[in-house]
Design goal:
about 130 residues, mainly alpha, 5 helices, elongated
Amino acid sequence: MTTTSTMRTPLARVRGLGSAKSGTAHFWHQRLTGLANVVLAIGLVTIVLMLIGKPYAEAIRVISHPFASLILLAGVISAAVHMRIGMQVIIEDYVHDEGAKYALLILNTFFTITVGFASIYAILRLSFGV
């Protein structure tokens, strides 16, 4: 008969507390969106450099190019996902009141969706010249 040592307390074993199995996915999503943000930031800087000293009409023409619009859209989506995951980790780690934690997590999601949709709307509006 072998005994295995465990770091869990008897109460934790009874309650079934343990890994929720989602931390690794969040970790990788955040790293992948961070990497995507670095790559897309190069495209964003290139677009901004192309716009220096250009009149408004020329800036709209550059931004409405399909390739530039796709870079901007991908950047907004990647940044929004990265922002949501990062803020979620901060809220989960530093807010200890359960009610406040859930309220902030919900607000974090709504804020990210609002910023993302507003940015996507602006890019699409410029892209299609509406």
